[in-house]
Specification:
single chain; 87% helix; mainly alpha
């Protein structure tokens, strides 16, 4: 079985949602948009990998619960630290939190539709 779609679909969805949201939040240069893309290229596949691991070993509901309560906040904090380093003039915690909430909601909506 080819597992690549398990990683590519969420990554592409996250990149699209967060790049558009970042643009709307004022990150309007290609350099700033590419920063959000690169940050997600690092964090999203790791989140998906650990989430799938947890769901496989602990069950779907427990895995999802741990993902939402522990892994997602870790991603938000990791991205916040990266943004803070690269964008010191912005409120990076709000940026990271907003982008990740929008991405999470977009993913949940797509799961319900598809």
């Amino acid at each position: 079985m080819n597992e690549l779609p398990l990683f590519i679909r969420p990554l592409l969805l996250t990149i699209i949602i967060e790049a558009v949201a970042a643009y709307l939040l004022g990150l309007r240069t290609w350099k700033l948009i590419s920063l959000t893309i690169l940050v997600n290229i690092v964090t999203n596949p790791l989140l998906v990998l650990f989430s799938l691991f947890l769901m496989y070993h602990l069950g779907i509901e427990t895995g999802r619960l741990i993902t939402y309560l522990i892994l997602e906040p870790l991603v938000i904090m990791t991205e916040y630290l990266i943004y803070r380093k690269c964008l010191p003039q912005r409120n990076c915690l709000i940026l990271s939190l907003t982008l990740n909430i929008l991405s999470l909601l977009g993913g949940l909506i797509c799961q319900k539709i598809i």
